[in-house]
Amino acid sequence: MKAVFDDPQFSFQMLRILGSAGVGQAEVGECLSTAYRIEEGDFDSWYKEWLKTAKRVHKIADDCLAKGHEVSAREAYMRASNYYRASEFYLHGNPEDPRIKELSGTSTACFNQAVELMDIPMERMDIPYEDTTLPGIFYRPDSSDTPRATLIYQTGFDGTMEELYPGAAAANRRGLNCLTFEGPGQGRVIREQGLPFRPDWEKVVTPVVDYVLSRGDVDPKRIALMGLSMGGYMAPRAAAFEHRLSACIANGGVFDFMGSRIPPGMTRQQFIDFMKNDPDDFNKGMEQMMEQNTEMRWAIANGMFTFKASSPVDWMLKALQYELSGVADKIQCPTLVIDTEDDVSFKGQAKPLYDALTCPKTFMLFTREEGAEDHCQVGTPQLSQQKVLDWLQEVFVKKK
Asked: Considering the entire predicted model, what is its pTM?
């Protein structure tokens, strides 16, 4: 689905922001006005124009709050948070760029101010993890301590837990608790703690499940895990080893993170050997592709940033560890695997994951006719929430 830009990467990110308008994280007019000022395919232009919009809306929020207009302030802070996130999005080519921490920190601060002005029971917490902690937010439907079914909801390759708020709110409206969190490679954990992604994601999720089970307002028999985007690899990987989960959702399903990047006619091992035998030549080829292709420029830069890789070859070799052969069939809980008709991020990855499962399983396809054909249904979040959470509620009913 084309959204303003001819450049596919810019168009997708624009649709991602526009789609959040229906859940209060953007205004269509503000988005279009910003987009019309952006130079096609220019990362610096994207940064500058979204920052300009973010600051303008942030000022609206501050002024409204100063005058006692708390509802107006809340709504503006929520939009400003998303616009700051958008401004920071393409800055990862230089991991030391001070704007990364500055903008992500301001985005989080605006989100916190928005939530503080809402009448919802939510808690920020630091979840014990190895020798540090992971940030999380626990949302409840009300302030009672009634044990409830709970959704653990995580993002993927490039999102933040604040961006997951609409999904958490949708879960609350259906009577579910929701915990959003960030793990290694994500959000504040990579930006402030410097912890990169790891393939054995069960080591991340098990401490999160431990935390959830320590709460008196959680039904221990009804805990689900949902992963978004690259989280469609992480959630199934965790569920294969963390059997206290009663449901798993992969949106969209990812059997092999780098599967579509292996050249035709090459086996995985041949591709690995090719890169190791001549890394300089491979890096040079990747750098040339980055100059010519916005998608490649962003994906490799963000991959090196979030995996803490020293070169494109280093990133590719690390990313090739993220696949579910001999793992997916260990999942025991009911699992929902989601695909979209025009998913370009992980094209063709959902069906192999679904086929590898031996647990109770469901395949869900979002279509062009629904306007939901893009990766993770970014243009139709409310439709996605409806179909996915209805499935989850039906699973939870059987677990009572």
From this structure: 0.96
